[in-house]
Amino acid sequence: MRVDDETWRDGTRKAYDWTGNGFEDTVENILFPPRARKQGENALPDQRITCDFDHGPQSGNNQDFNLCHVSSQDAFYLVLVASLIENAGLLSTIRVQMNFERMRWEWRGWLMEVLKRPQDAIAAYKQAYASNTSRWQLAHVIGFLYEQSGNHAEAEAWLVRACEGNPKSGDAWFNLGFIRDKARRWPKAIEAFQKAVALAPNQDRAWYGMGLAQAHLGNHAEAAKALEEAARLQPMNGHAWYALGMAYHHLHEPEQVKRAAEQLAQFDPQRAKVFIRETERADLHHLVAHLD
User: Fold this and answer.
1) Does pTM top 0.85 for this prediction?
2) Which of residues 200, 216, 238 is at a domain's end?
C-alpha cells in the first residue's frame, strides 16, 4: 500500500508530515510521546516494540522502542496503535516483548487496592517491583500503602527507593519529607523538602512542610523564610499564615505578627481569632470583634 503526502497531512498533526524529519521520527512521535520514551541509558529491556519499516526514508530498517518506563495500561494502548499502523501497510512486522510477569502482579496489586486489601496489594506490588526494579513508581505506591497502614519505617524505606529510582521527582521527595515529618525526624524531613522545592519551586506544600519542620527545631528564622514562600504561593492557606505568624511571634517581630493576623482575618476569621489569642495581641482584637 502506497502512502503519499496528502494522505497523511491533515493540517492538525504535524507528526504525520511525511516531509519532516523522516518517517522514523514520525512513527516515534505518534506512538511514543516524550513521557513514554526511554529514560536513561541503563533502562532495562522490560517492554519493547520492534518495528520493521516498509516505506519512506527508513524502508528496510528496524526501529526499537523501549517501553520499560511505560505503565501497563499505556503499553497495551501503544501496542494497539502500532498494530493499526501495521494493518495500514506501513510496517511489515511488529515484534512485542513485554514483561507479563510484572504486569500480572501490578494488575493484581491494583485489584487488591480496589478491594480494600492493602496488605495483599503491597505483596503483589512487591512481586512486580522485584521483576523490574527500574519501576520506581511501584516503590512510590508501596510506600504510600505502608504509610496508610501506619508503618512509617517501611513507608520511608520504600520512598527512599522511589527517590533513588527517580531523583528528579519532586512529588517523591515531598512524600518522603512528609513521612519523615510524621516520624518527628525533622532534620531528615527538611533535607527531603529542600530537594522537593529545588525540583519544583512552586510546590507550596513542600515549603509549608519545611517551615513546620524548622519551627519544630526552633529555627524560627528559617521557618519564616519557608512559610513566606508557602503563603506567597497559596495566599488563601490559613495554616501557612498561622504558622508564619507564630514564627514571627517567636522572633519578636510584632509588625509581621500584625500582618499575619490581618491576612487571616480577611478569609479565615475564626483562625485569626485563635491566632490573636495565642499571640496575646489584644490590640488586634478589633479584626475579629464581629465574632463576639
Assistant:
1) no
2) 200
